Each structure stands twice: as structure tokens, then as C-alpha cells.
Amino acid sequence: MFSRSDPEGAIAAAAKRCSNWGRWGADDVRGTMNFLTPDKRREAASLVRRGVSFSLAQSFDANGPQKGWRRRTNPVHTMLDTGTDAAAGIQGFPHGLGGADDVIAMPLQCSTQWDGLGHIFDHGMAWNGRPAGEVVTSLGDARTGIETVADVIAGRGVLLDFGDLPDGFAITADHLRERIHAHGLTVGTGDIVLVRTGQLARARRDGWGDYAGGPAPGLSFGTADWLHATEIAAIATDTWGFEVRPNEFDDAFQPLHQVAIPHIGLFLGEMWDLDALAADCAADGVYEFWLTAAPLPITGAVGSPVNPIAVK
């Protein structure tokens, strides 16, 4: 248990209990992705039976959830060359050739995305005990940039579907274990766990509202020990911030992030669209699948957009 009035003490205690610093050597940059081995990936490939695939990404467009917090905006898509230009003959190509090109400007964590290991620090320390100022500078993350895991995030995915939870609902380790049992699953080393709370489905129905940064169901701070002990490679949710909001302390901001990323070395996915996958899992009773979710290898980035694909 932890005290609502002592987030500093609770975070420090959980960080000490759940630390993976040095587990894979002083130079490690992949954290819990070390659990997702070639053997685990080969086993996961056998989960493809029907060949049915699902994109787990939200749309990347101006109608997204962002409201400008910490300068996070929705994507801005602009055409550089168009069919109109081609028809007007102003593109300069010979023999009737025409084309279209476009550009997009966006924060890397404005829609479906991964949090990299350089995204969150604890008292000035980054993953594996490195000083944050030596890891992430104005040039980017020189040690744990998201490109370091661009080739490894593919393996066994499992879905824990909680239906439609109310905002502020804290998902405990017992809740996770109950869902695992209810779905006939095991969860362990190297798995990528997806948690559906139903919040994205509500936002689609009722409007974005405070989806980005407001109250939300999510993981309880008390799940830090479960996240560490299960040796999962990553976890993702259909919410903006992964953990329950408001959180369980009187004065704290994203306390579970503060343990999970810099101490456990865990990769967190946020704003994943799990609705179609959940419907299929409910229909056939199978909640495990092959999952590939490679980030864009943006050198030095502390997060990345992703189009995860689940295949059953």
C-alpha cells in the first residue's frame, strides 16, 4: 500500500523495489525490450491462424484529441504538389507526367505512439541510472533514442478488455489478474500487453472533451510491482496517459510513469485504438495474437508515432 499524502516516498520505494538498472549491463538502451527475444518472437508467430489483421492506430489528422498542452498539437497535413498543379501544367515534368507530394508537421506523441526510455526522468536520472542531462539534450536522445528499438517491437500481444470503465477508475494488479483469467490467458516474459478501458470509444461517441490530459481510467500506481514482476516487454492503453487520472496522490503528476520508464525501463503505448480488435477477440474468444508495432526510427526521438498491426 501507499500513502496518498506521500508521493515522494511511494515513488522512491517503488523505484527501489522495481529497478532494472544494470540488469542488462551498464550500456543497455533497450530496457524491457530485452525480454522480447528471438525465441519469444518465433513462438508468437505461431499465433497467426486466420490471417485477419487490425490496425490499432488512431487517425493522424487535424481532428485529433490534442488541445495544445505542452505545445502538443494535432497533425497539420499540407500538400506540396497536387493534381490541380499537374492539370495546370506547372510542375515542369515532360511527356504529361504529373504527381502529388505532401508534408506533415506534428508532435511525435500527438496520436497513437510509444513513449521511449528518454521520455521521463526521476530526480534528474534517466533509464539505467544515467544523468538526464547527458542523455537528452537539444540534439535529442543520444543514448536511448527510439531508433534503438525500431527492429524489435514485434511479438506476442495480449488484450485485456475492461469494457467501458468510468474516468478515474484505477486498474489494480488484481483487476489485471482477473481479466487475464477471464480471457483464458497467461501473461509473462516478453509479452506486449494491451489494456482497453473504453475511453477512446466514448470520446468518439461523445466528442474529445478532456480526453487529452483530463480524467481517465488507467493503471493504478500500485501496478508498478506487477509490471516489473511479469517481465512484460511493453504495455499500451486506449487512453492519453496510460495511468489513472486523477492519480491516487494528493499532489503528483504521472507518478507511475516516473517508476515505469526510468526505473523499470518499460515501454508505454498511449492512445491506441483497440475497439475493432476487442470486438473480434470477443467474437472468437481468442485474446492473443501476433503484434508488430515498430516506431519510426527517428534518430534521437524520445517517442514515436506508430501504426500497430495485430494479426490473428
From TrEMBL:
Which GO terms fall under molecular function for this chain's record?
arylformamidase activity
Q: Which InterPro entries match?
A: KFase/CYL (IPR007325), KFase_sf (IPR037175)
Annotated GO biological process = L-tryptophan catabolic process to kynurenine
The protein's matches in PANTHER family, at most eight in alphabetical order, are given as:
CYCLASE (PTHR34861:SF10), PTHR34861
The protein depicted here goes by the name: Cyclase
